[in-house]
Design goal:
The protein has a domain at 196-273: Tetratricopeptide repeat domain (Serine Threonine Protein Phosphatase 5, Tetratricopeptide repeat), CATH 1.25.40.10. Helix content is 76%, strand content 0%. The protein is built from twelve helices and no strands. It has helices spanning 27-41, 45-63, 68-83, 87-105, 110-125, 129-146, 152-167, 171-187, 193-209, 213-230, 236-251, 255-283. The longest helix is centred in the C-terminal third of the chain and has 29 residues, at 255-283.
Length: 284
């Protein structure tokens, strides 16, 4: 079975000051941030790091190292280091961000939860599962106390925490968290449907492990339908759903249903592989 990866670090571009006003660091700082984000999207992570360092230096000069916009600059640098797989550097930067935000907001502000989640993701990547779970739970506690129940940040944290529990075989915990995450995402005004599909997929696999085949099938079918509609019939995530559904039917002896699904998945993966080969040739 293929588990849908659930850890998501999303670097968001902040163009305004802490009160929604124009950045106190000035337009030059904003441009550095925009350039760094564009370079990141282009895969130019080293250039992005050099550019965001200019934003960090400018923020330090303009507002000092205790200001929130300096923390924003550090957060962006940390996310770029994540993309460069320099996890120790990223963790050090996020730790500094956490210190600044805690002094500014106190320990129970939603922005604290955001940074805790970033640190949790790093701990997960660095294979410190227990610390990742502790940090995500700390973030979730803050969000539950400070945000509306259907706030998307809560759904994101629930999904990430559920995935770690799931990947570590803590299925009862994962099941409860996925149920909450799905409820949160379905009630949101703007639904993140691909992430909802991940939750449905993984919850379906848990139901299958528990022998609840009816719910397993229904959840896997929902995940597949969302992925086909939102990501397309030839997306790798769609292939993932086809494989999981095919394995489910194979397990319960419905081979006539499983084989067409496996063939569809194989076709998608072969097309994806062919595109990568063509892309590498065109770049050379």
């Amino acid at each position: 079975m293929i588990y849908s990866i659930g850890i998501h670090l999303i670097a968001t571009l902040v163009l305004a000051g802490s009160n929604g006003d124009v950045s106190t660091c000035g337009l030059e700082w904003v441009v550095f941030c925009q350039q760094a984000e564009a370079l990141t999207q282009m895969g130019e992570h080293d250039l992005a790091l050099t550019t965001i360092q200019q934003a960090v230096d400018l923020a330090e000069e303009k507002v000092g190292t205790k200001h929130l916009e300096f923390a924003v600059s550090l957060s962006k640098a940390a996310n770029i280091q994540m993309n460069r797989r320099e996890y120790a550097e990223a963790e050090s930067l996020f730790t500094r961000v956490l210190e600044i935000k805690t002094k500014k907001h106190g320990a129970s502000h939603p922005e604290i939860a955001e940074t805790l989640s970033s640190l949790a993701a790093i701990r997960y990547i660095r294979n410190d599962q227990s610390e990742a779970i502790r940090l995500y739970r700390q973030a979730l506690e803050i969000q539950d106390n400070k945000l509306d129940a259907n706030h998307p940040a809560i759904g994101k944290t629930l999904n990430n925490l559920a995935y770690i529990c799931f990947a570590n075989g803590r299925l009862p915990e994962a099941e409860a968290l996925y149920n909450r995450a799905i409820e949160n995402m379905e009630s949101a005004t703007r639904k993140n449907l691909p992430v909802l599909a991940q939750c449905l997929n993984n919850l379906g696999l848990i139901k299958g492990k528990n022998g609840d085949y009816e719910k397993c099938e229904a959840l896997l079918l929902r995940a597949l339908a969302i992925r086909e509609e939102e990501l397309g019939a030839n997306h790798r995530a769609t292939a993932e759903s086809l494989i999981n559904l095919g394995e489910f039917y194979k397990r319960i002896g419905k081979l006539e249903k499983s084989m067409p699904l496996f063939r569809r998945a194989q076709d998608i993966l072969e097309k994806s592989k062919s595109k990568k080969v063509k892309s590498s040739h065109s770049d050379s």
